[in-house]
Amino acid sequence: xxxxxxxxxxxxxxxxxxxxxxxxxxxxxxxxxxxxxxxxxxxxxxxxxxxxxxxxxxxxxxxxxxxxxxxxxxxxxxxxxxxxxxxxxxxxxxxxxxxxxxxxxxxxxxxxxxxxxxxxxxxxxxxxxxxxxxxxxxxxxxxxxxxxxxxxxxxxxxxxxxxxxxxxxxxxxxxxxxxxxxxxxxxxxxxxxxxxxxxxxxxxxxxxxxxxxxxxxxxxxxxxxxxxxxxxxxxxxxxxxxxxxxxxxxxxxxxxxxxxxxxxxxxxxxxxxxxxxxxxxxxxxxxxxxxxxxxxxxxxxxxxxxxxxxxxxxxxxxxxxxxxxxxxxxxxxxxxxxxxxxxxxxxxxxxxxxxxxxxxxxxxxxxxxxxxxxxxxxxxxxxxxxxxxxxxxxxxxxxxxxxxxxxxxxxxxxxxxxxxxxxxxxxxxxxxxxxxxxxxxxxxxxxxxxxxxxxxxxxxxxxxxxxxxxxxxxxxxxxxxxxxxxxxxxxxxxxxxxxxxxxxxxxxxxxxxxxxxxxxxxxxxxxxxxxxx
Length: 533
Fold this sequence. Notes:
The protein is an alpha+beta fold.
């Protein structure tokens, strides 16, 4: 620093350049002469370096430089003035500056040459890079922290900066490449994606343009040549991209196994469907046989007062009762063939249950007609034997399980010293099944069945809280094919109670009932113990 002070240079500015513009400039502007002496500074210089104008003007510009530039600066100017190449004149370059406190900091320096009269001057524009460098260091530190944090993530993480990839530990384990090895691969996209790399690249570039809004599933190729499946999600900005890759290979392998199992299940369903169709055809054939036996039924019903009316009611009832379950079976069979995937198992099971219920309904209808035929022909001869009442009730519950649905709506009460009773097991089961079946159909509440045995007699009471029987129609209750007006919307042939009454008579018992419309019905049966063989 020179000891003698020089007066500030009094320059006359060009008309197009206002002194106010220089003084209000954001960047620092310094004017020096050919000896490196500061001639003029704007206010931004004072703010940046911490010196006053008096401390700067008249001193060598090297006072604002750290070593080695401080010692070499005068030599730079001399070399240029003697004809040397202009190394920094007219260019921008990053250099270090030094403030009054002795602290060095980065600046962007641009120098231009100016002539005033016979003198040569150099104007320097200085832009402080400290804040920008600090931000850059913070970003680099954040990037290193992010790489450190992602090292132990349970999912694969990849950072793509330009065309360079940085891999965390998990993704290195998945693909088999180390962070250093992936940088040596010429085309990492082709290396990782295998034969489908072109298709995957197009998909990747499309998602990239849209901001990676979707999660994609890719099949990637490992270093060893094996393939793994990953779910791929990404985020990008102007600094780079972050990829998150979740290894779903075990899940995919399980899904593939499930697909194979589902194909096998589909094959078996198709086989069962064909069997069911054969069964349906057999049922239709049975229905045709029933229709063709109209003349035989007509003879069996000769004892009815109005044979024509009875025939009409029989045909109508039989046709309706067969048509409904048959239609349900056919539609369910067709629908089952449409449900071929595993996630449709519940739908297939639903229609299989419909088929079972319809087949059960058809079986009950056929049993009613066959029972009626045997009764009319007088071909029923009871076989009396010791019967375990608890065993019969258990069998009946299983028989009616399809009507109870998921609820235990039948309640049995056995008030007997001895649960065995001598009677015809098959006939007694039919009586109880018909009464409980009606109770479940015509009531949504609990149906109770109470058994009392006393003095060689069995007393049965079956009670429901259903729709009941209108008083004016109760006299027709045991008439074949009779349906009360409030029960016409519920499936039934009108034969059940008629058969019950005949079977009770065959066993030598008594049958009575009490009913109130809207309140429910109670049937009471008294049976005498048959002769033991």
